[in-house]
Amino acid sequence: MSIGKNIRSLRESRGLSQIQLGKIAGVTDKAVSTWERDEKVPRMGAVDKMVQYFGVTRSAILEDSPTRPAGAMPMPEMQKIPIVGAVRAGFGSLAYEDREGYDYADVKNASEYFYLRVTGDSMAPTILEGDLALIHTQPDVESGEIAVVLVNGDEGTVKRVVKKPGALMLQPLNPAYSPLLITGEELRDVRIAGKVMEIKRKF
């Protein structure tokens, strides 16, 4: 597809009018109209605002999308994912609290994902307070991966999980914070809620 068709496709996928997209991109609806008719190309500042809003790469807007050959796998569609402010251990499952709405992500099974609104600065500068972390719900991760971890049923915390013989270390990325080493029977009270897949940040 052309740049104009890419923009129109993204706009319509969110049910936005040209006026609404113009406000997001910092331009008028007339400018959006000229983009979608391929009469003009958006400036990079406007492109970056759309990239941030839609959660896509620049290439999803600026590059032509060639027609897929017969038999090729279809591209994933943007799926609606709930945004939560806290994750806790429920009765045999996870409890998602303080829901604040939805965002979108290119995933196949939306029911396996949630967005977590990050609080605190223990993972700075990689992950900042207020960031949206896309989490894939899964009971375990590889050593060194970043995950949402519940300790003693408390609210989930985002940390790098480092596995050691007979122990689990929850490692912050901010050097101002100390890692938490969990050993022995305390390991029974640790639960991994899911793996951090990507971060969205508003500037």
Task: List descriptors.
203 residues; nine-stranded mixed β-sheet; 5 helices
**Beta-strand fraction estimate:** 25-35%
Question: Oligomerization state of this entry?
Answer: single chain
The largest sheet, given as strand count, sense and whether it forms a barrel, is: 9 strands, mixed
Give the % helix. 10-25%
Radius of gyration: 20 Å
> If helices are DSSP runs of H or I spanning 4 or more residues, what is the number of helices?
5
Secondary-structure element order, as H and E?
HHHHHEEEEEEEEEEE
Low-confidence stretches: 66-76
Widest sheet: strand order?
4-1-5-6-11-7-8-9-10
The separation of the N and C termini measures 29 Å
Mean pLDDT: 85
What structural category arises from helix and sheet content?
Answer: alpha+beta
* Shape summary: elongated
Summarize the structure.
This protein is an alpha+beta fold and 203 residues long.
What order do the helices and strands come in, and which of them pair?
Blueprint: H1 3-13, H2 18-25, H3 29-36, H4 44-54, H5 59-62, E1 78-84, E2 86-89, E3 94-97, E4 101-106, E5 113-117, E6 132-137, E7 146-151, E8 157-164, E9 167-171, E10 180-183, E11 190-200
Parallel strand pairs: 1-5
Antiparallel strand pairs: 1-4, 2-3, 5-6, 6-11, 7-8, 7-11, 8-9, 9-10
Helix pairs in contact: 2-3
